[in-house]
Amino acid sequence: MLLSTLTLIILSLSVKAAPSAVSPTSFVLVGDSTTANGTTPNSGGWGNGLCGSTITGNIASVAAGTPCINTAHNGATTGSFVAGGFWNISLTAIRGEVAKGRRTLVTIQFGHNDMKIAPPESMGANLTEMVRQVRGLGAEPVLVTSLTRRSFNSDGTVADSLGPWADEAILIARQQGTHLLDLHAASIKYVEAIGPDAAHRLNRTPDDNTHLNVNGTTVFGRMLADLLNASYPGQLPIIANPQLSSNIANGIPSF
User: Fold this and answer.
1) Positive or negative CA dihedral for 39, 165, 151, 116?
2) Has this prediction a pTM greater than 0.85?
3) Phi, psi angles (nearest 5°) of residue 245
């Protein structure tokens, strides 16, 4: 069943935010281009689909007034994100939200670029240090496995090259006792269910199987929100979107 943007907006506005008993919560997003906000209508990662964007027209998955700060950077590895000063930007944002007395969740998703330069263990060591620093500031690290690329084998299965890096994030989450959002597995399951044609309708451009257009950002931002809800049941200011969540859960294209 195809959903128009108007339908999604109506659904989003027709439901209420999480109950007032939910602790004041902030989100800080850390990662590469598959998390980063797009600055034009057909570019970016899932970040705008979680935080919302008036620039690209994405519907927020978090309640109005919830700080959702996207510090992800295009082309980043866990190493270059630190070396390029972007991690310091993230830490500043985290400190600011913690100082306000807000529960601060920090999602960390890498892998797409780390896989090009180093083995999974290198990324794992960097993730471990990031987790340590986030906790040192009084915030909560949430490790996220890599969003799948939408490249397919002839039999309709995903041609997955990110698996070892997703597995490394899972290992570090286990070792460090952090929450884990297995976006890699969830996104593979979904795009295989909807098939290549529908999956490629979420591409930034027809041949770009990594980055997302507005519809892709909306779908995978919602997927991330649903994974957060499952990991923190009843605790977070996540707005419900029953139709989109149902489509994702049941492998039905929304666009």
Assistant:
1) positive
2) yes
3) -65, -40
